[in-house]
Design a protein that fits this description.
Largest sheet: 5 strands, mixed
CATH class of the largest domain: Alpha Beta
Shape: extended
Radius of gyration: 26 Å
Order of helices and strands: HHHEHHEEEE
Helix content: 40-55%
Number of strands: 5
Structural class: alpha+beta
CATH topology of the largest domain: Nuclear Transport Factor 2, Chain: A
Number of helices: 5
Length: about 190
């Protein structure tokens, strides 16, 4: 019995040592991921106050085009009419559509052209409001992320997070990708 107890104590001691070493290695590994040595060229993004102001103006113009139902003017804010412009469906939506289209990946059709046509022809009073706008610029490219609410006839129709990729071309900032989450308010 004493010998069995001794073996048990040694086994427990050995196991705690192995676990302690594994935890130490895990913490060292996660520390490296969290705090890698940053190369000197990182975090030196090329950004100017003038460009940030111009990108904010792009967002203001986008909201204005929606409110004024001006799809034609909205088209001047995008790189071209075939930009990625979608709210990918969540898995339940994908599964529902796959009941009749096995290749559906959550990306709907229509994109920017459908949206531009909608804002130009709808009889509803519409508006989109942006909150918490964050802009990250690096030279001729920038990423714009914000919370949004889309209103139809004065009521929130949907809301979520929207993300744009924009680029500066011919001296102007243009949107070349718009992707967003979409939730309906609880009633």
């Amino acid at each position: 019995m004493t010998r069995l107890l001794g073996i048990l104590v040694l086994t427990l001691f050995f196991c705690t040592q192995v676990i302690a070493q594994d935890l130490k290695a895990f913490h060292q590994h996660t520390a490296l991921l969290a705090n890698p040595e940053t190369p000197s060229y990182q975090n030196k993004r090329v950004s100017t106050p003038e460009d940030i102001i111009a990108i904010k103006k792009l967002a203001e113009d986008f909201m204005s085009c929606i409110k004024n139902k001006d799809g034609k003017r909205l088209s001047t804010l995008v790189l071209h009419s075939r930009i990625l412009f979608t709210s990918p469906g969540d898995q339940s939506r994908v599964d529902k559509v796959r009941e009749y289209d096995v290749n559906f990946d959550g990306i709907g059709f229509g994109g920017f052209l459908s949206f531009s046509r909608y804002i130009s022809t709808t009889t509803e009073k519409i508006e989109e409001k942006f909150y918490n706008i964050e802009i990250t610029q690096d030279g001729h490219l920038a990423w714009v992320t914000f919370d949004y609410e889309f209103y139809a006839d004065g009521k929130v129709n949907n809301y979520g997070i929207e993300h744009w990729q924009v680029r500066k071309i011919d001296g102007k900032w243009k949107i070349y990708s718009v992707i967003w989450t979409q939730y309906e308010p609880t009633k």
